[in-house]
Amino acid sequence: MTIEKPQAKQAVRSLVLDKKIPAKFQPKGYHIIYEDQDLIVGNKAAGALSVGALWNKNNTIVDGLNNYIRKGNSRSQKSVFVVHRLDQATTGILIYAKTEQAQQYLKNNWQQNTKIYYAVVHGLLKKKSGLIESYLSEDEDYLVHSSKNADDGKLARTEYSVVKENADYSLIKINLLTGKKNQIRVHMSDLGHPVVGDEKYGAPKKFSNLCLHSYSIEFNHPFKKDRVFISAPVPTYFEKLVPYSY
What we know:
alpha+beta, Pseudouridine synthase, 33% strand, disordered N terminus
């Protein structure tokens, strides 16, 4: 019998910005933390729109990045390409491609990525870690519903673990296995522990900020094809609820 040797873990390179971008050139609501010929990665602020919406089609991160890469040249045809999105109230890592080829590569390989989020939720979870699975669908009022029936939507899978808790709140680390709209918010609400600040899915009106942050992503670089990692600092208001060293 032949015993196969375990495959060596692929080396991971951390992305580091090799130049400092002056604050006046940073797009509003989006702090660039890495850039190269293929992509731009930044830390999205709460309230910033990843792309245009019915109520706001122009004041978006995409618009700000297009101005940034065009360097004020109104005749330039340069533009960024959307790879994924974050809810308007969610903060953290957000990637844009600088070419269509990079965009397609990142989208086609998205399921190979490791996406880590942190959230502060109400209450103490009886089960300190687990996997939440349900089928999600959105209604005409943009509210996402969760069901155990496969005919009712698309499968969403959220892996979570409690990293710290106090009398009122729990800090949750999340491995996002799929990326459906409002997925983490709906799944935490399903458990009876909505994300702090998420009145849309059952949180009480106690905190103005949504405590959900896209902390890090590990993915294959679209040009070099090596495995890379990048993270964004957690907002300071998390510390007011559950102090923790990330």
